């Protein structure tokens, strides 16, 4: 890790892409503690408003140059970034695991997502297609083309401290935009590491200073991006509460926002399900990243005839979970991000008990030698009812709710009957059920899967959800259009001036 980072115990200042400039700050230092062992691993200067303004000015100047670089050339630079992340996959993945708390396999998988989106963006750089259209006027040609937006602000969350940044940045860069990244104040070190990794590529290719910028801090820094008319697009990942505040601020200046917010994801388990497939998918979806994914499986809606069988299988599977240091690959579940998350877990458990919920797998804290950080909890399963307020909310902890259903329409109504609409799944070998779930009568989520879980989306598909999830789409498919502006062009190559709609105007 030391090969890609400044000394971790010295306060580090954020800045722009090549590492040549770091801005001075007089604000309180951000201390990053590992939830794995409670150790202080980084001290980072948060950006002041003056720092922020200098970063935006540098980014604006860089955009004026970067937009003129041919898109395939921009793609080539992103390709080189992908090679750099391949080179540092083990180091960065280990750092992600240690600073955030997800297992090492998940940390390495997150870096692989960066590599994959780099590969995708390289191809995309030669496919930023427009359209040719037929004009109603003689000797006229109509076409549609796309231009870069300008400065793209990226606000990322702690649970995917580097991957979600890359989903936005790599696509934005091939589109000709420049990026200003505000990572979570809980995971600043991984963000600094990414800047270090790509800095060499940017310098070697004479990329203008400011194409990739970093600011650090808490809510204030995010508000600066949201309210700044110099920032063309704000892409924000986090809670629905945060997203509503960002959306209101950006809309107030008629800017653009791309929101990836909360999830309350369900798996329907049909009587026709292959339970040997379903159980591992449910368990990984519920406990992966200690329940701190937006795509975490939070509810399972089980057909009444197999409800007891599924419950017993899950109880047995949960007894096999090993909880411990995320850097030890023998463990399935690491810690929550901090002690506040542990308090949220305890509050949710108490509310479930108050509502009359019964725990199929009991909750609890994990304490003792090796768990000194105080951030380890036991994944649990509760029998509940879909309408309960605690079930309707997204609690970012490993609590799974079991809900019975009678008919498929009942199951789909329960699945859709929450404010969020990110990911969903059904396990069934019945073709009619599968198609019904995917039809307009089925899932209302942005992601709907058959015979796989809610967690673990691939780069090639557009990622995002509906309702309180925000409606944004990142990563694959045609998500690149969010980072560009559309322009319609009409060219008159004739000798007369006919008007559209047959209007006559004579002088």
What does this protein look like?
β10, α9 (275-287) and β11 (297-303) form a beta-alpha-beta unit. With 507 residues, the chain is an alpha/beta fold. It folds into two domains: 48-261 and 470-488, Aldehyde Dehydrogenase, Chain A, domain 1 (3-Layer(aba) Sandwich), CATH 3.40.605.10; 265-450, Aldehyde Dehydrogenase, Chain A, domain 2, CATH 3.40.309. The chain is globular, with a radius of gyration of 24 Å. It is built from 14 helices and 21 strands. Residues 6-10 and 18-26 have low confidence and may be disordered.
Reconstruct the topology from this structure.
Layout (H helix, E strand, L loop, with lengths): L29 E4 L6 E5 L4 H18 L4 H17 L1 H12 L3 H21 L6 E3 L6 E9 L2 E5 L7 H13 L2 E5 L5 H17 L7 E3 L4 H9 L3 E7 L2 H13 L3 E5 L4 E5 L5 H13 L9 E7 L3 H13 L19 H17 L2 E4 L18 E4 L5 H4 L6 E7 L2 H9 L3 E2 L1 E5 L3 H8 L8 E4 L11 E2 L2 E2 L6 E2 L8 E9 L15
Helix pairs in contact: 2-4, 2-5, 2-6, 3-4, 3-6, 4-5, 7-8, 9-10
| Unreliable stretches covering 5 or more consecutive residues | 6-10, 18-26
Q: How can the largest sheet be summarized?
A: 7 strands, mixed
Give me the CATH fold name of the largest domain.
Answer: Aldehyde Dehydrogenase, Chain A, domain 1
Number of helices: 14
- CATH C-level class of the largest domain is Alpha Beta
The N- and C-terminal alpha carbons lie at a distance of 74 Å
**CATH superfamily descriptor of the largest domain:** Aldehyde Dehydrogenase, Chain A, domain 1
Query: What is the CA-based Rg, rounded?
Result: 24 Å
Mean pLDDT: 94
User: How many separate structural domains?
Assistant: 2
State the shape: globular
Pfam families: Aldedh
EC number: 1.2.1.3
Domain Aldehyde dehydrogenase: 25-488
Active site: 260
